[in-house]
Amino acid sequence: MLHFEMLHFEMLHFEILHFEMLHFEMLHFEILLFEILLFEMLHFEMLHFEILHFEMLHFEMLYFEMLHFEILHFEIFHFEMLHFEMLHFEMLYFEMLHFEMLHFEMLHFEMLHFEMLHFEMLHFEMLHFEMLHFEMLHFEMLHFEMLHFEMLHFEMLHFEMLHFEMLHIEMLHFEMLHFEKLHFEILHFEMLHIEILHFEMLHIEMLHFEMLHFEMLHFEMPHFGMLHFEMLHFEMLHFEMLHFEMLHFEMLHFEMLHFEMLHFEMLHFEMLHFEMLHFEKLHFEMLHIEMLHFEILHFEMLHIEMLHFEILHFEMLHFEMPHFGMLHFEMLHFEMLHFEMLHFEMLHFEMLHFEMLHFEMLHFKMLHFEMLHFEMLHFEMLHFEMLHFEILHFEILHFEILLI
Length: 404
Fold this sequence. Notes:
The protein has 404 residues and is mainly β. It is built from no helices and 7 strands. The protein has a domain at 242-404. It has strands spanning 2-234, 237-239, 242-244, 247-269, 272-379, 382-384, 387-403. Strands 1, 2, 3, 4, 5, 6 and 7 form a 7-stranded parallel β-sheet that branches.
């Protein structure tokens, strides 16, 4: 059943349109409008649709130089309103793009630009969008070797400007990635490199960025066995400029990082700057926070030249209710903060409370721990009304073994 209520073409151009096997069980269009649809070479080896449904699919200008599919499979592909003002592909390449159910209520693009978008295997079992909005989504080179989603759910994913110069992912795996509301005004990456970023289950109810900027954020193999957020709540997570020149993780491993309620009323960074934040192996077996609350965590300028961890290990880091009324840093500066092995078996806080913890300038030239070990560091109630440092300076603070 191929149904058209109104199919309109002003100019439909094909140089080479090739199908080995094009299969439709039910293709439904209420209104499919093209002003200019141009294909130089559109190639399908096997394009399969069980149900492809459009209520209104609108293109002002859809441009392909080379769109290649070896296997593009849809069981149910549903659009209520899919709108493109200008969707541009220089080379969009799929070896196998698989959808069991891809659902859009409203997918809006003002300008979606790809110079080279490459997928070796992009797999969706259920990709759901209620409202996915892009004003300007720009990719110069977006590369996926294997991008896998079992269930990717968005209620509202909003981008005003999402910019990638080069986003490289070798293997990005999601079993269940859930967003109720993920909002970006400007999310900018010059080069975001991920070799393997693995999520078994990443759940975010509402994550909001006004401007999050990375020049180069590099991951070789960050692994998340189960990164779970019941309620990761940001009333206002504000970054005026969050800048990473090089944030590097060789192996960042979480087996279970759990937050019941991580709450920020106002987490504010005027300028959080890392020249090089390096983790060779940052390992958490179980990091548990029942309720970590910040009223105001404020950084005017937090600057780290080199923060290095060879092994930072937590077996159980537990916070029942640490509260920060106002934790303020005018300038917290580390030239080199180095940990060879910082180990906590159980670091426990029942109630850690700061009304106002203030640093004008906290400076470490070299704060070095060979082995800072806590078997059980326990605080029932650690309370500060006002802890103030004008200048706290360490040239060399060295511990070979500090055992508590």
